[in-house]
Structures are given as C-alpha cells and as structure tokens.
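User: Before I run my own analysis I want an independent prediction to cross-check against. Here's the chain; please return only the structure tokens and, at the end, one sentence I can use as a sanity check.
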Amino acid sequence: MTESNEIPTAQLLIVDDEPEHAEVMAEALRRLGHVCTIVHDLPAAEDELRHGQFDLVITDLVMDGDEDGLKVLAAARQHQPNAETIMVTAHGDIPTAKSAIKGGAYEFIEKPLDLDVLRTLCTRALETVFLRAQNTDLRQRVDEQFGFEGIIGNSAPMRNVIATLRQIAPSNIPVLISGESGTGKELIAQALHNNSKRARRQFVPLNCAGLSESILEDELFGHVRGAFTGAEKDREGRFEYANGGTLFLDEVGDMPLPMQAKLLRVLQSGEVVRLGSNETRHVDVRLVSATNRDLSVMVKEQKFREDLFFRIKGVELHLPALRERREDIPLLVQHYIQHYAFQMDRPVPQIAEDVQMALMQFDWPGNVRQLMNVCQNMVVVAEGDKIEPRHLPSEVRSESGGPVGESGSAAYDASGLSLDQIEKQAIRNALKITNGNREQAAKMLGIGERTLYRKLKEYGLK
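Assistant: Structure tokens:
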C-alpha cells in the first residue's frame, strides 16, 4: 500500500483543545474518506477510547498547559491496543514527544501543521494498523483450516478438540487431557496456557511417571535447608514456581496414592508447605493434568482417589489417536518434513505418492510423536529432492496395509490391468484411506480437485 486511496476507510479520534485547529485536521483527513471524531479535553478522550472503536488517535501533546496527550496515549494503549497514536507538538516539546514514541506512540508532528505531511503520516500509520489486522486475520484463518497453536489437524475429532480448547482456555477451570502416548498432550496444555489470562506467567511441566513419593513431594512442594541429607539451601517447588501461571502434571495416573492425598490438600487449600518447614505459602495455580490411563477404571480399582479425580477433571479433553484421524496425516507430514528440512538447512523434498499412501495406511502405534521421528528420519536419509519408498523406515514399509511391492510401499497386483483400471483402483484406494475426503484424496494422488471430480464421473465412482 503506497497511495492514500488504497487505505480503507478508518475511524480516527482527534484530541485538541483548540476547536479550529482540530477541525482543520479533521477536514484534511475526511477528504481521504476517513471518519473523524473530535474531542477537546482529556475526560472526553478517555470516554471515547473506552466506548468507541478507533484505528488511529491524533492528540495534541499539551492541552490547557498540561501534557494531557501522554495520558491520552496511555488510555489509547489500554482501551485501543490495535490503534496507533500520533502526537501533535510545538517545537519546544519535541523531547517529550520523542519520549512518547518510546512509550508507544507511532510518531509526532510539529506545529504549524503541513497538511500534506499530516495526511502522509496518517496513511503510513494506518497501513501499519491494517497490515497488522490482516496478519492477525490470516493467522486465525490458518488456525481454522490447519489447526491452532501448533496443533495441526482439520479432521472432525481435532476440530472438536480445538473448539473446546478455545472455549475453556480463558477460564481457570482445571483440565484433564486424556489420550494415548504420543498424541500431543503437552502441546494442548501449552496452548491452554498461551491462550489464558495467565499467559505472561510461567508454564511449568512435571512428568509424574517413575517418580517415588519422596522425590515427587520435593519436586512439587520444595524444601528448606537441612530438610534431608544433601538439602544445602532452600528450594521452591513447582507449585511456587508456577504461582500465577499454569502447572502441568503429565502422567498423573502414575502418582502414588499417598502423594495423591497431599496433592488434593494443596488443591483444596491453595497452600503448600515445603519439606522441613511449618510455614504455609499461598499459591495461585491453574492445574492441567494429563494421562494415558483410564482414571475412572483406576478409581474403581482403588488405584486413584475419586475425590482427586473429580478435582482435576473440571473439563476433560480427549485426544484421538492418529489412526482415528488419518485425514490429518498429509498435513502433519508436510509440516514436519518442512520443519526438519529447514532445521537441517536443506531444500524441502517432495513426497512420492506411494510414500504418502504408505504413511496414510500405517496404524501409528506411537501416534504423532512416532510420525515426527519418521519424518525426521526420511529427511535425513533422502539423498535427492524427493522422498521415495526406499527412504521409509522398515516398520512403515512392512505394516502399511497390504503386500509390499518392489518399491517398498504397500501395493496391489496391477499385472494384466489397463491404465484406466490402475487409475480407477488408485482413486478408490485414496478415497478409502481419506474416508471419502475428496480434497485430501486429490492431494494424495497429485491431481487437482476438478480433475478428480471429472475422473469420479468418468469411472462412475461415488
């Protein structure tokens, strides 16, 4: 955007204690098609900023002898965080205006005003505002299409997970994330934290698996000097370190029963006591837990406390296994191939169609974590600019559903078939693997959606 007439209509707030001066600025900017609101003092400006919606604020620095423009700037940053602010100043106030820029103002302009300079400056500021809005909108649309906060997936199960995540993230309700190992439970927990009101504070993870009661107690609650042999200084636990933020307890189902009772007490009271101390310390922590076990079954078997179960299960998010959302596999593969290629400073290789087919057919017992490792392995061993079946790990080649052809990928016997018959069978296989998702099937086959639709009609496939 370079020309002023390319800028969409914007909402402007003009703050100046000289009515004639304010009207001159407004008229110059209205000619560009913008909507201008004029106020003449700080209280009126604060009221507009609280209740209105503005893209750009233009304020005089000094009004009635006071530097009220700085207070207008502060109010704009508080109530209109996406807007930019331009300061209008006399020559003698330039040092203050420069300080205002450090405080978040876009730019300043000196009196007497050159209206052409004012229009150009406002256009540049609005370009920044609208570009930022476009980038935000693009990120939102990418999230809607491909996932959210690094959680990649456009399948129905993952759309449900993401929708629930968006809904509960801003609250303080405890969350229990369930799912098989490798499905991305910590990624979900991090996304919950990043989209909560606690995002600026700590996200503190702790894996409970394999930890004894004494070690787990020390990790969670900390200790004072001399509490046990080797405790040479005070140490805060994870609860204190996460104060104001989010504590993520992974594999909470592995927590010993005596430790479960101590955790429940802290969650009920909001207070921790370090090992070796009698002093209570208040903590404000949002708890997110994760498990690959069925805690309701463990409760019936008296291996997990029922009261703790209901305490940590404010909302349960269940992550589907990768085999339950196969249509997401091409997106995941593309993402991780690019990631590891960039990481290794190598060109992003293409993926052969039979490789994509094998990846789609494989059951992925290790879920997304296993897929990541396979993608990294393929990028490392691929010699050229294309990942071929021979670059697939042996477990994927041999277990991808069907006999293994010479190329190393799952195949069917095509001997004696015409090209049309082979093509028809390939389309059938792609539709079967993608659960009838034509867009994903077309990508897998390396053809456009229109071409696929024409082939479906031609071969009488539905």
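Sanity check: The radius of gyration is 30 Å.
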